[in-house]
Each structure stands twice: as C-alpha cells, then as structure tokens.
Amino acid sequence: MQVTAALPPAHGGDVAADGKRAKKRGSYNCGRCGLPKKGHSCTIKTPVSASVTPAPPDSSLSVVSIPSTASSGLRNLPTTLRRALSFDDLDERGSGFDRSELEERVDADLFSETDPDLDLDANLCGLPGNLLWDVMKRLPPAGLLSAARVCRGWRDTAKKIWRAAEELKLRVPINVTVGFVASMLQKCPGIVRLSLRMESDFDSTMLACVAFSCPNLEYMEISTFDSASIRINGDELGRFVADKKSLKSLKMEGCSNLGGFVLCSYSLSTLWLSDLHSLSKMVFNCPQLREISLEFSCQENDSTDLTTMIEGLGRSCPRLQNIHIASERLSHSAVLALTAAQLRGLRMLSLVLGSEITDASVAAISSSYPNLELLDLSGSGVSDSGISMICNVFPDTLTRLLLALCPNVTSSGIQFATFQLPLLEIMDCGMTICDPNMQNPAADEDNCKLQKTSGSNVHLINQKLIIKHSRLRKLSFWGCTGLDALYLNCPRLIDLNLNSCTNLHPGRLLLQCPILENVHASGCQDMLIGAIQSQVRDASFAAMENHSPSKRLPDGSKRVRVPHLLSEESPEPEKKRRRIERQHCNVLLG
Predict the structure, then answer these.
(1) Where is this region: Disordered (predicted)?
(2) Alpha carbon distance 319, 303 (integer Å)
(3) Which of 331, 508, 551, 586 sits 20 to 30 Å CA-CA off 73?
C-alpha cells in the first residue's frame, strides 16, 4: 500500500459509536510535536499540506492502496532524481507499458484484498465493513484523518489503513521539527519505501528517527529543495546503512557535508549520492551493489581521488551493472582503473564532465566491456575516431549513446554512428556542432559547467545531417548552432530536441517521422518554428489517412483507398479509431 502524506496526525477527543462501550483513552503525547500533553502548550502550527504534489480535497490520488501483486509495476516508475542510467520512460514505451492502463487495472483489483483483521460483515454507521474499507482507502490524507473522528469503527478502520501502508511520500516544510516526521512514521509501522522531500535541513536526529521508526525499510529517497541541505557526516551515514539489514536502495541529494564514508551492506543494490565534494575516503563493501551514481559538485577545489575510489569499487562490488560518475576530475587514469576492475556484468557506463577522457579511454572501455548497452561520455574529449571505435565494438548491443558537449565530434561522426549502430534508440548530441562565433545558448543550471567544455569547438558552420534509422526513439541536437540542414527519416522517433538551433534553415528541414510526439524548439527562429509545425501537422494528417482501408481494382492491377462505407470489410473498432485520431505532435517552446 502507498500513502502520500498530506497532514500531520489527527488530534482531539474520541467519539464513541456506542454509548455502552467503554471509553478508550487517547494518547498522552501531543499529536503535533510528540511531547507529553501534561502542562504542555504546543506552538507548532499544523501545516496546510505536506504532500509531494498538493492534491485537492476531493482528490482520489492522495491515498492509494496498492496490493503487492499490482504494485510491482508502479514501483519501477521514474523518480524525481534524474540519472543518465535510467531512461525509464523509454523502457516503458518500448515494452508496451501504459501507466493509465496499469492504474485502471490497479483500480479494478485494488480493493479485492482487505485487512485480514477487519470484520467485513460488521455494520459501521450503516455501511458494511468491506464497503467502508473501499471508500476510506480512496480518501486523501486530510479526509482520512477527518473520517477517523466520526466514530470508533471508522477510527479503527482508518488506523488499519495507515498500518497497512507500505510506501510513504512526505514533504517536510521549513521550521517543522523532527516530531512531525516521527508522528507520521509511527502511524505507518510497516513502511518499506520512504521518500522525503526536505525543505528544511536533514540532520542526524532526523536520520535516527527514520532508523528507529522504520525497522523494515528497503527503499529510501531524500531530495532537498531551495536552501535545505543534508547535515550528516559520513560516519553517521555508514552506521545507518550498516544497521539497516534490509535496505536495498538509498538515494540522497545534497551530500556536501559527508567528508568521507565507509559503507558496508550485504543487501544494498542501488546507491545514488549527489553534490559530493572533497571526500577524504570512499570505501564500499557492498557485494550486492548493482547500480551506483556519484555526482560531484562543480567546484575547482575538489580534492577527491577518483582513481583510488574506482579501484576499491571494482574490488568490493563485483556485481556492478550500472555506473554513473559525474566529476570534472575524471581522467584517463580513472578509466584505466575502471577497466582493470573487469566488471563482467557492466551494461551501462556514464562518465560525465571528464574533459581528459580521450579516444584512448574509449579504446580501453571498448576492449574491456564489449557488451555495453548505454555509454555516456558527455563533456569529454572524444572525437570522431572514438565514435568509430564505439561503432566497431558495440553494433549488436549499444542502444543509448550520449555525446553532448563533446567539442571534437563533428556531423560526420554523428552520421556515421547512426548508420553503424542499428539498435540505437537514444542519442544526445547537444552542443557538439557549434558555431564558434556565437555565444553558447543558455542551458539548465545542471549543465552550467558542461558549457565550458564546448568553448574550444572550432568546427565550421553550415553543417548538415542526414539520418535514416529504423529504431531511434529520442534524438537531441540542443544548442547545435552550427547545424544548417537536417533530414530525418526515423519511423519510430517520438522525441526531437532542437532547442537553440539558431542557424537551422527552415527550407533545409525535413522530418519524416510519422509518430513524432514532441519537438522541442525553444530559442529557434520563428520561421523555423512555423516550418516544424507545418511538417508535423501534415505528418499527422498523413498518418490518419494511411489507416483508411484499401481494395484492389477488379483487374487486380493496383490497390486504391476507399471509404469505410464502400468497403465490404468491417470498419476498425471505435476504440482503435479514437486512438488513431489522437495522434498529434506537440511543438514545445517553453
């Protein structure tokens, strides 16, 4: 069961359903701060909302009960933390995964399971027990807390719903004490997945509260917003990981105060740490670790020894499959340390911001890990020669290639890669084909340091690209100011990024992508935007016309399209026709 928390626990007196029943005493502790009520005057105000995404009072999405049989699909949905390793949205499309269909299926089977301790035949305020269970599971947290005050039967049902929760998503506002988090965690003792959206600092007291209140915790994600930070050191994090014997996944942002850490766990399989800086030591003793993501802050005085860290990582984590490291201190020596580890199961490798990673590094990677499915070398010094090596080694495995902000890559190398890699589904070539006389376009804050690597791009402008690929789903040329002409014939392309392609000529753009859904054109010329809109609109009409039935002439010479009224065959089902009519492409300018 998943619960998205929106309010702190309810407080107040009990209302008895039957006057003959003995009155049950309430809690001796304050429902807001957790302190004893005797002689206590609480000064904490009840937050208006504590949900990750504020929901209206009548929303049915705030409290969702998910049986274990149906929750496995939803648990793999993308999180708010973006990593180059995931691309879950593409995986869902490729596997036919439809979130709306899954939610409908979950809603249909959601309440076939109820709490085994609940008396389904009991009549609670005129409602059968099973009907009350079904209704209260659909209430938002505020409604669930209010329903608990109606009568004792409703209060007991609400407690069982909270107690059966397996996932809690909680937003912690500014100036909220640890008692707020503790009170929410105490209501859900069976929590397995915990997601905290911290708008206030996360300190060692909060970490101890989580460790005490969630004995069976398996997945924990902590994200920070605004000026919030994680104020715990590496020793405290190491003790937490060592004590949580069932912890499988740990994802934390804002880890700038760790200083150094030693992580020992025989259950941990996923580890994401971001905003790292100047770590004196990094020791991993996690034999079950399969995915690791380490992002370092872009500061010039970072003294982390990545080579030593990677050597230890290879020795103590032999089952690694996905590696993502983002740091300006990445170098060829770090790549050699990684290749010496001989991680036989490695499938996804992302080494970002390493300007000292060269074609020699690509050669080392290619010789040691020939089964890679994802390779991200964004911000590196790789050239067309390195791309040629990639194409020679990975034609049968590589599906995702990211080479954004690689100043030595030309349009010839990009075109060669699309021709030689038949399984390619995602390709990012942002700011590779750049006009050296133009100022780099504005990018996200996460890419502010990456832009410095493209300053040495001296390629000529007025370059053109001709790409014909049968499997490409996502293609990005953001910031390619040197791109003058683009011809795409990609029947499965669904997402195209042309943001800040300021020199792309409207008359030299041809999009033959019938199922294209999104085209990003922020910062482009008005004439180019108009050309994009015209082409995607014509493609949508053509796609709808192509679904008209066809019939051979009496002499069998050729096939012609005929209206449904003249066709002897039965028309397509109404549901399928509606799906075809909805196909349209969005041109995104924001």
Answers:
(1) 1-21, 545-579
(2) 28
(3) 586
Q: Residue 12: how many CB atoms within 10 A of its CB?
A: 10
Q: What is the pTM of this model?
A: 0.73
> How much is the pLDDT for 286?
93
Tell me phi and psi for residue 520, to 5 degrees: -90, 120
Cβ atoms of 248 and 226 within 8 Å: the answer is no
Opening angle at CA 386, ends 520 and 490, nearest 5: 35
Q: What value, to the nearest 5°, has the Cα angle with vertex 222 and ends 216 and 224?
A: 160
Token code pair at residue 232: 């715990």
pLDDT in tens, 452-499: 444 444 445 678 999 999 999 999 999 999 899 999 999 999 999 999
Q: Return d(Cα 230, Cα 252) in angstroms, integer.
A: 9
Could you give the 3-state DSSP secondary structure of residue 352?
A: strand
Taking the CA atoms of residue 229, residue 56, residue 77 and residue 256 in that order, the dihedral angle to the nearest 10 degrees is: 0
Q: Retrieve residue 101's tokens.
A: 């269909």
- As a whole number of angstroms, the distance between CA 219 and CA 246 comes to 9
Centre a 10 Å sphere on the Cβ of residue 330 and count the other Cβ atoms it contains.
26
Tokens of 122: 């009991």
Report CA-CA distances (Å) from 86 to 82, 410, 517, 549. Answer: 8, 27, 21, 40
Evaluate whether 154 touches 139 at the Cβ level (below 8 Å).
Answer: no
Q: Which residues make Cβ contacts (< 8 Å) with residue 478, sequence separation at least 6?
A: 404, 430, 431, 443, 497, 498, 499, 500, 501, 520
Asked whether 379 and 353 are in contact (CB, 8 A), the reply is yes
Element (H, E) at 401: strand 400-402
Do 343 and 372 form a contact (C-beta atoms < 8 A)? no
Cα–Cα distance measured from residue 14 to residue 286, given in angstroms and rounded to the nearest whole number: 49
DSSP 297: -
Number of H helices, E strands in the chain: 16, 28
